[in-house]
UniProtKB/TrEMBL annotation:
Protein name as it appears in the record: Cysteine dioxygenase
Transmembrane parts of this sequence: none
Keyword Transcription assigned: no
Highest taxon above the source species: Eukaryota
Key word Oxidoreductase present: yes
């Protein structure tokens, strides 16, 4: 590419040739629309460009350019350095290049709404930093921006082929533009209403990636308390709150799981079934969240997941990434009992779960790697107290059958003792013996 450009413009004096040299990397699936993301630690200013021809376009050829700089970021209508061809610009700090951290920068073209969007982090409208609306199509006469509908080829400028080959720059592509975000709530078909459809506050499973659809069927109908153990949730709560009982003791041992001891940053993991090699750890996990407990901020190895609240409710906080700069959540939602949420490789990937209520909460999560994921990274990454990214292998405190059996035995024993010894001191004595 550089050679072609050099030949074509050898006689012209072009300032900063590196930044206008176009390296074509792929096509849009549909002309005039799509979202292109580049994830990397930028060393210097760069551009993402959309063109109607796969050739060096420097000069006066129409093209769309997102030009991200250290002091200013611009949308351009040609890939040059001319002031006249700037569509819009911003000096907003958030819109500038972050040289210190790895970041996903994305550029969305929406021909139907005649809109450009630029954001950092997950490709969603909530994270749009800067946008530009082209003037509406004139009812009469020439539409001077009709050419945006013919844009098809994606190029990068200021990024080398080696960096792309070695994957130090990763391309993330989405065939649709960033418009209305898919909400984190998944509702049953029978709960969908015209209002929900209009406001977009929840989605039905059919709108989600195929991987999530497969997982949904497995957990949608599941409940915690079943006729064979109708007070299972009371038994777990008792086990969490009573010294000597299994949940209480296990939680105590886990307080350093994520670095410096923190008894509140713990939860219990009970696995269902075997690791089938297609998810980080066992695909189905019951997670038990004592009152006031939370997870660290973590990401999910780019896997897909469906999470259902089986008992009580939980807060989910979403983050743009794991960098220290990203630790302000951009969205916080509450999922109540029986509500379902989802995670994909592109959306809602980095979160923290927090039980803000006065009693325990139980969720079931199921995970799966995406079809194109050949790396199968077996860890969840999280950020520790020292702002360092660490990983943990999703492990099991118990298998489900083992857990249910232990809780049932313990609960029966507890109820028996409670009936037998009405006095607190005798009960405490029993627990003390048990702990030994
Ligand atoms: Fe999670």
């Amino acid at each position: 590419n550089e050679k072609i450009l050099n030949e074509r413009i050898s006689n012209e004096k072009i300032p900063n040739k590196r930044i206008i040299c176009e390296l074509y990397i792929r096509n849009l699936d549909i002309t005039g629309q799509g979202t292109v993301g580049l994830e990397f630690q930028a060393k210097g200013e760069f551009r993402i460009m959309l063109s109607s021809k796969e050739c060096q376009s420097y000069g006066k050829t129409n093209a769309l350019v997102l030009d991200i700089g250290e002091n200013i970021t611009r949308f351009r209508k040609r890939n040059n350095n001319d002031k006249d061809d700037i569509l819009a610009s911003t000096k907003k700090h958030k819109a500038l290049l972050d040289k210190k951290v790895k970041r996903l920068y994305w550029f969305s073209l929406d021909k139907k709404n005649r809109r450009l969007r630029y954001g950092k982090g997950p490709m969603q409208s909530l994270l749009t930093i800067f946008s530009y609306d082209f003037p509406p199509k004139p009812s009469k006469g020439i539409d001077k921006y009709a050419w945006i509908e013919n844009l098809r080829y994606i190029a990068v400028c200021g990024i080398s082929q080696e960096d792309l080959n070695e994957k130090s720059v990763e391309l993330k592509f989405w065939s649709l533009p960033v418009t209305v975000d898919l909400p984190p709530y998944v509702i049953r078909h029978k709960d969908a209403t015209l209002t929900v459809l209009e406001t977009g506050k929840a989605t039905v499973i059919d709108n989600l990636p195929e991987e999530c659809q497969m997982l949904y069927g497995n957990v949608a109908g599941i409940a915690l308390n079943t006729p064979d153990f109708s007070d299972f949730s009371d038994a777990i709560e008792c086990s969490i709150n009573t010294p000597g009982m299994i949940c209480y003791e296990k939680l105590k041992k886990k307080s350093s799981t994520f670095g410096t001891p923190n008894p509140k940053r713990t939860y219990l993991r009970v696995t269902l079934g075997e690791d089938q090699g297609n998810s980080p750890g066992v695909p189905f996990v019951l997670e038990i969240w004592p009152s006031g407990h939370y997870s660290p901020i973590h990401s999910h190895s780019d896997s897909f997941a469906i999470i259902k609240v089986l008992y009580n409710e939980i807060v989910a906080r979403y983050y743009t990434g794991l960098n220290p700069e990203d630790q302000k959540c951009y969205n916080e939602v509450i999922f109540k009992q029986d509500q379902i949420t989802w995670i994909s490789d592109k959306l809602y990937q980095t979160h923290q779960l927090y039980n803000h209520t006065g009693k325990m909460c139980v969720t079931i999560q199921c995970y799966q790697y995406g079809e194109k994921d050949n790396d199968h990274y077996e860890y969840f990454d999280y950020i520790n107290d020292g702002n360092i990214i660490q990983n943990f292998r999703p492990n099991a405190d118990w298998t489900f059958s083992e857990f249910k059996r232990l809780i049932r035995n313990e609960w029966e024993e507890y109820k028996y003792i409670t009936d037998k010894y009405s006095s607190q001191s005798k009960r405490r004595n029993w627990l003390f013996t048990k702990r030994r």
